[in-house]
Specification:
Layout lengths: L1 H32 L6 H16 L27 H23 L4 E6 L1 H5 L5 E5 L6 H11 L8 E5 L1 H5 L3 H9 L2 E3 L4 H16 L3 E4 L18 H9 L3 E14 L5 E9 L11 H24 L9 H6 L1
Parallel strand pairs: 1-7, 2-5, 2-6, 3-4, 3-5
Antiparallel strand pairs: 6-7
Length: 320
């Protein structure tokens, strides 16, 4: 009888453990299947993007940027010639590299595939790198592929940023914006003279400059937006190529803190576009811009299997 009772007790305890395990698993499944709340600020940004596209205002940011403080010449050392600038640059780039590694490790940034890395690796001169702009992390993506291409061994990658991001962005991002080889634009004419001098020096030294020719950040926007001429003017002025990069994306199975799927990036690096010195500068600029846009458009249509179309109303474009 004692043996039977012991077996019975053991059986009951096993059943209790099994029941608890089933309940825990059930609770986890229910927790996973519970509806995810999408962040209100992201929903508002998506609504704003819809309105901006419909109104044809492609060069306006959909995010609320920090107020701009005017950048004056004495407050910027574009080429990091001062000792303090050099020290900050070295420290900031180490912090930025660690931050990038953490993003990748924790799946906050997912680079699923890179196409055409050789198109970045083979450029021996200075170059202007263009990319579509849809996330604050897309600059880290370009930084990563720049490193993977091997160009970091002999070149630097500079990034053109808006004035307010340099002068008035708080926290870690602000520190990185000010010190990680950035080239802030400015509403001050004297500062822009220094900006142009720095750009010429950088490109003639054989380094790369990342520019977002769409001039605006639209969160997770998949279409290429109309391009501005600035990047192509700099390329023609310095007789260096444009390297067009267009990042396509897919939903991952990971839901971010904002309630939306984290995107998996497919980085598409196209053949460099070289200036045609037989053209007049303005024609050359327009030609390079159009070539860049066609490359992006073709990548978009090939990847998403849909034609590039905007919701912009024709009458609103005419009124502009």
């Amino acid at each position: 009888m004692a043996t039977i009772e012991l077996v019975g007790d053991s059986f009951m305890k096993s059943m209790e453990k099994l029941t608890k395990l089933i309940k825990i698993k059930k609770d986890k499944v229910e927790e996973q299947e519970a509806p995810v709340t999408k962040a209100e600020d992201r929903l508002e940004v998506l609504k704003k993007i819809e309105i901006l596209e419909r109104e044809g205002k492609f060069d306006i940011d959909a995010e609320d940027d920090p107020p701009t403080i005017v950048l004056t010449p004495e407050n910027i050392d574009y080429l990091r010639t001062k000792t303090t600038s050099k020290i900050k640059r070295v420290f900031a780039n180490k912090v930025g590299e660690k931050f990038l590694d953490d993003l990748l490790k924790n799946n906050k940034l997912i680079i699923k595939q890179i196409n055409g890395l050789e198109n970045l690796s083979k450029v021996k001169t200075g170059a202007v790198v263009t990319c579509n702009h849809f996330n604050a992390f897309d600059c880290f993506t370009i930084e990563k592929i720049f490193r993977l291409s091997g160009q970091i061994e002999t070149k630097k990658l500079y990034k053109v940023i808006r004035e307010g991001n340099y002068t008035n962005f708080p926290g870690l991002y602000g520190f990185l914006f000010r010190n990680c080889d950035t080239l802030p634009l400015s509403s001050n004419k004297r500062t822009m003279v220094e900006f142009m001098k720095a750009v010429d020096t950088i490109l003639q030294n054989g380094d790369f400059i990342l520019i977002y020719p769409e001039q605006s950040l639209w969160w997770n926007y998949r279409k290429p937006k109309p391009l501005k001429h600035g990047a192509f003017k700099l390329a023609v002025r310095n007789k260096v190529p444009i390297i067009p990069i267009f990042i396509t994306m897919e939903d991952s199975n990971i839901i971010g803190d904002d309630g939306f799927p984290i995107q998996e990036y497919i980085v598409n690096i196209s053949e460099p576009i070289y200036p045609d010195m037989n053209m007049k500068p303005k024609e050359n600029i327009d030609d390079m811009l159009q070539q860049n846009f066609e490359v992006w458009k073709n990548i978009y249509e090939d990847f998403y299997k849909i034609p590039l179309e905007y919701t912009t109303k024709k009458e609103e474009l005419i009124n502009e």
